[in-house]
Specification:
158 residues
């Protein structure tokens, strides 16, 4: 079963279930369970591609990377974490004004705009990897990111 089919089923199952007589709480629980299943399947895919069968996906040349000390790595990670938290706070606070000014729905912003902005580095990485002929990894990463973001949106499907 491909990741695309699995992700599509995980997205469509709660939507179809919402048309039944069950309450919103059951649909929400099913949506969360399908999201957890997606996350577990993605972890298994990464383990397969990067661990057990990495020789099948190693068409890239090995490049010597710069060496960092443990201290500089921790300081860099802490600095990036603080800056991402700060910028995320600014982004979240500006959503209401953005929605009112452009007269668009918060659902559209949450499902389309925010994932595009939030995954900009992921998109650049996907293009770089695709150029280096690792298309299978590129497609699985893109599909998972898109469908995982949609399945965890706060949209009321009923």
């Amino acid at each position: 079963m491909s990741m695309l089919l699995l992700s599509s089923m995980a997205l469509l199952l709660p939507i179809g279930f919402s048309f039944s007589d069950n309450g919103a709480e059951e649909v929400l629980n099913l949506s969360r369970a399908s999201g957890i299943c997606l996350l577990l399947m993605y972890i298994q895919l990464l383990f397969f591609q990067l661990g057990t069968h990495s020789h099948l996906f190693n068409s890239m040349e090995i490049v010597d990377l710069p060496k960092f000390t443990l201290g500089s790595s921790i300081v860099g990670l802490a600095g990036i974490t603080v800056s991402v938290a700060f910028l995320s706070n600014i982004l979240v606070e500006s959503i209401d004004g953005f929605v009112k000014e452009l007269n668009i729905s918060t659902t559209f912003v949450g499902i389309i705009i925010i994932p595009i902005i939030g995954n900009a580095v992921e998109h650049v990485t996907a293009v770089t990897v695709a150029v280096k002929v690792l298309l299978a990894h590129t497609l699985s990463t893109c599909i998972f990111c898109c469908l995982f973001a949609v399945s965890h949106s706060d949209h009321d499907w009923s």
